[in-house]
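Input record (Table S2, row 835):
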Amino acid sequence: MPDLKNYSSFQQKYMQVLKFGGTSVANAENINKVVAIVELAVQKDKTVVVVSALGGITDTLISAATAAADGNEQYKDILLQIEQRHLELVKALIPVTQQSSVLSMVKKQCNEIEDICNGIFLLRELSARTKDRMVSYGELLSSQIIAARFKTGNAESTWKDARELIVTNAEYGNAPVIFTATNNKIELYFETAKQQLFIIPGFIAASVEGITTTLGRGGSDYTAAIIAAALKAETLEIWTDVSGMMTADPRLVATAKVIPRISYQEAMELSHFGAKVIYPPTIQPVMNRSIPVWVKNTFAPEDYGTVIENAAVKNGNSIRGISSINKIALVSLEGSGMVGIPGFSKRLFEALANASINVILITQGSSEHSICVGIDDVHSTRAKDAIDTTFAYEIETGKVEPLVVETQLSIIALVGDNMKSHPGTSGKMFGALGRNGVNVRAIAQGSSERNISAVIATADVKKAINILHEEFFETTYKQVNLFITGVGNVGSKLIAQLQQQQNYLQHHLRLQVRVIGIANSKKMLFNDDGINLSKWKELLQNGEPMNLQSFVTTIQQKNLRNSVFVDITANDAVAMIYDQLLQRSISVVACNKVACSSPYEYYKSLKDLAREHNCVFLFETNVGAGLPVIGTLNDLLRSGDKINKIEAVLSGTLNFVFNHYNGTTKFADVVKQAQDEGYTEPDPRLDLSGTDVMRKIMILARETGAQLEMEQISNETFMPASCMKGSVADFYTAMAKEEDHFKKLYDAAASAGKKLKFVASYAPSGIANGAQVAGVGLQHIDPQSDFYHLYGKDNVVLFYTERYPEQPLVVKGAGAGAEVTASGVFADIIRAAKM
Ligand code: ADP
Ligand code: ASP
Ligand code: MG
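Output record (magnesium ion complex):
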């Protein structure tokens, strides 16, 4: 907090401070943009320009010094690069006739840098003090070159060394400002200076003894704010490479938007929690003087930018922005000995303060059993030593556990002044994170209710920020990321439907559905921006070889929000990996029946996993293809209805076969026709044996809660045993030989005026023929039955329930075919996306 007690009544009229960051002054082309902006500003008011080092130079200076300290002679090459970059800049920026004095200034400064590095190299030692001296040359060089550039233009400028204006303590690397002395110096200098334009290096200052210090990385913003506050400037402008403070870091969220107006407090919270666009201490001095801060884009000066000001801004949204900080360690002090004893937290925080460790976030369980503190992870070893030493006695006597340190964590924060008047913000935040499997390690909410912050794994940050951005800011759409396995008949149709509906989904359901991964049995293909669906076939052909486990691992590693895995294979191995996905909160939509008809335990475990991890496991197309059979059953059950009996014709294949067979064409040929028209499983025996129908009635029974296994379902098969052996070709040959058998079946029904239908039944109290609760078999159907008028590949399901006791609820329609099955899968995907 700056000390403003001794601040005099001095006020410089119409002063403005403009700060230009590293990218803005990275090269001659950019600096010329800066010059144009400043020349315009100067026409209005007296102007102080604060500049950073050329982009990247501070890091390069540090790497040279570190190399020298490590005894690595490469530091000389690095210094040459630094010199070269500045000399080239001067040559590109300043007319030849005026270059020489600037070039010799650069040479002189670079010689000093070299002398310092030679010293570091000889001593193999780099102190914080020397490091500050090293990095100061970045701003010293840039500011003097820029001042020289102004001399060649329309505005006369004066260069002033910030070390003569800003006084700090001698805490190198991040020195606290002594405001009384600083304000006096700034005031005194500008009171007498008559010029219109001043160029000042940011970031650097001097201790009371006159030794060079720095204000912390990113500190040029702070320099500008200190000067603006001391001068009671009209405005402070932070010119950077984005068009304002944004709702989230644009490098993480592609759809981040500029925030036109924001309060000081909100800006302070956002920058404190990682919004790098403003260095956190910057706001305080200007806020104390109510000086508006503009964040503007050097590369798009016409853009409005952001104004940070006093007034609370209402925009109908409780959240102003989202930010994150990486490299966080969570240290937890736990133990029963802490309960009810005052002073534990005081000692903890004192230990951290004495070790100069900054506390970023604090939470304490109401049981008082533990205190959790978020700190910068570079300090974690120091924190452990300090705290374990402070509590050595309590640890020894078992009252407190040794400090637990967890790393590779990050903090994400939601910020907004209006949060307090909007209940439910945290519910929405944690609900959205939970649905996407983001595990929250600790939570903190400021009592001002201006921010809610959570500690999560660093690997989850990008996903989490995007989820929250979508939840709180996207009025446009929610992004859904699909991974599809199996792109044969049904899969291709699904992709075509997705492509055709993309616009509709975006406009009517606000869903942006993207296919990120596609695989068939041979190849797999990924594209984080969404696969181009108009040429997926050729892209997939050139994809990498398919490996199921690496397909799954890639989905997990991509860690995208709202991910849905879609299985359109009939493959056993694919069905066995759903658990790995559900465990990571990735929803599964299966057309594949294997998982639901595998032993009950696996089916149940998948349902439980989905519930536990807040995602869905959907398989509507397992029964009746695109018909809403499972959905209807679930609607009945959820509304409290009870199933008395389900009777159904569930095999499109068998229906097709018995509708077309009348004893004239051979039975085997009718089956072949069904296969050719795509109405059978790849091995038609799965259909003809009734196995497929058994699976379907079992899935329906299981959905009602019955713990049914395949062995418990009776099957009165009509297929002679001779047909069920060998290959698919053998099957056709054997079937042709058994034509008499099929003819007899047909004649027996036809002579009684009936039709043949393969019927499945389930009744919790037992089906007609005994103790069995479920069974399938060929039946003679008379013309009064609901089953009689079934044509083509129709399916029909009759639900007899407490509410539909006599006249059943009927679901009827085509129960096979690629187009309808794909639309059933599509509907499940939308259900998964909307949850
Ligand atoms: P300068 O060198 O101009 O000081 P910085 O790199 O320090 O610029 O800060 C600007 C950068 O901050 C932007 O390029 C952007 O990537 C990043 N950034 C992080 N969070 C935000 C945010 N909420 N709004 C705008 N920019 C942000
Ligand atoms: N040049 C310094 C840094 O890179 C200060 C700044 O750019 O604000 O941290
Ligand atoms: Mg910056």
